[in-house]
Amino acid sequence: MSGLIQTAMLALLWMPVDTPGAKVIVAANILMTCFNIVISLSTVPGIGPLLIAVLRSFRPMKTMFLLMGMVSSTFFCVFTTISDDHRDLMYVGIYLYRALFLGDGDASEALSGFDDGHEQIMDFGEEMFTGDGSNLLVNASNVFMVIASLLFSIVLLNLVIGMYSKFYEEMQPFSVLLFHQQRARACVCYMLAPGIPVDVFLKEPGPGKWCRFYLYTAAGLCFMLSVGILLLEHEMLVLNTIFMTLGLQLSQVACVLNISYTAKQTNYLWVSYRADYNEEHYMETTNKELSMLRRDLADVRAAGKEDLLQIKQLLTARFPETSHSRHCRALGGGTDAHSVEFPCGE
């Protein structure tokens, strides 16, 4: 809640961000606060499992991202080498990103000789890539751009999409379990967080409504002072920041007041269980393993029968049966298909 209030105040209120540095700082603060709010939604039912599955699917792809970085760095060095003399590294990096990641044809023409129809002359009045007047550089840039487009834009990007889809399907069944773990971790963090000494304000706090009222009143006064200083005195940014931070902290303490005071609350025994357990999902792998074992066992039995038959045939050919020969049975001693007669001698 405090992050949401802070983002709304920074984005909607008129603030003295006239300098470029101040604008960058405020924009970075809004970006990080919004990311913090989105990550905190992982403990909200409904959107939490989806958000966890989306974020956790990126972890197995670290090696793939490293490979993409190596390939893009290679082509960055290549096009930096053959670029025009008056082009800097920022120019090459931006247009190479547009060409490889976004598939922008205009960016490809800005780094190579793809503009064979001289459309850039009609649009900008000059060619963005001339190769310093060398046809060899222009032709070489065309070859390098074709290789970069085929290898990166067609092969690697499509492979990343396929890999992410596979990892997302694998992570989705476990997202509910990770969601409950995240909620349990958040509950423990709130319970173990240092709270304010309520007994200093009230001997018998009860629900703490008066103490919470005092805190909200103080937080409201801090916000009003912060806005007043912001609108009247544009140069007192430090004092404005102090009052805004103090108001946010007081409002957060007021929200967790009942949780922080646990002196007179009843103790409970927490019992956790697997709420996402699905017998069919977890037995699927076991059933596959049992099927493979049964198939292997059947193959072993069939091979054993064939070996026994071959041994019987060899023994029959080596020691033909006669009326006065004596025999004994081995390998089971029965009369089924696994029993074989061996000559025991005279």
From TrEMBL:
The keyword Transmembrane helix applies. It comes from the Eukaryota. Coiled coil: none annotated. The chain crosses the membrane at residues 37-58, 65-82, 143-164, 213-232, 238-259. Keywords: Membrane, Transmembrane, Transmembrane helix. This is Ion transport domain-containing protein. It comes from Pyrodinium bahamense.
